[in-house]
Amino acid sequence: MRETICGLEIEYRIQGRGKPVLLLHGWGAQIDSFYPVIQNLSTDHTVYAFDFPGHGGSDTPSTPYAVDDYAAVAKAFMERHNIVGCDTIVHSFGGRVAIKLSSKYPDLFGKLVFCDAAGIRPKRTFTYYRKVYTYKLCKRIVKVKWLVKVLKAVGVDVEKRVKGAGSAEYQVLPPVMRASFSKIVNEDLTKYLSKIKNSVLLIWGTEDTDTPLWMGQLMEEKIPDSGLVSLKGAGHFAYLDQFQQFIVITRQFLDH
What we know:
Layout: E1 2-5, E2 8-16, E3 19-24, H1 35-41, E4 45-50, H2 67-80, E5 86-91, H3 93-104, E6 109-115, H4 126-141, H5 145-153, H6 158-164, H7 168-171, H8 175-185, H9 190-193, E7 200-205, H10 213-222, E8 226-231, H11 238-241, H12 243-254
Parallel strand pairs: 3-4, 3-5, 5-6, 6-7, 7-8
Antiparallel strand pairs: 1-2, 2-4
Helix pairs in contact: 2-3, 4-6
């Protein structure tokens, strides 16, 4: 199904019958990333899920989006479907949206499940900063054609370095989504965590390298009413890697 929200056509799904629960997917994912969760919960819940702008079947925005823009879409979707106050499960980037919204609108959600949630700026190493500043320097140099030729003559191909910079995830994005991604990952949401009044269950994969376990531990420390469960051996998609454990723990939290 599709509907217009915040000026964009948004793909969404409603499945099941019972107490409503909303799912917010991660960056680069879509509704079907939550397929086993939807199938399980829809046996006794009404599950709501939608594709964020620029993902799945939803329109790509014409200008770069920040977390606040995605949050506005989520809030509008909840209001449109009259599910304000519902329990919500988020993964990765969906955590950024939930952090922003719950810290400002405590009544928008019921209970929250954060699975490998993003929002905390990672610890930066010297190597990271060297790569960033080298990339920025190369971006400036590629605008000076004669200098590009000189450097190439001595074995330094700055055009190739600029083109190959960034993660594989970043490289496949269209330009507007690259700009959105840069805005999003560079915003540290740590300061909002202490303002969250909802009950929050944090579920983390011990082998998560995208949002490492220490981020979940910090969220548990900062969010007043929260508890952390780590799933041994699971990675960034802990809800898929250890699905049975995830769904049992999640149901126990949501239904009691």
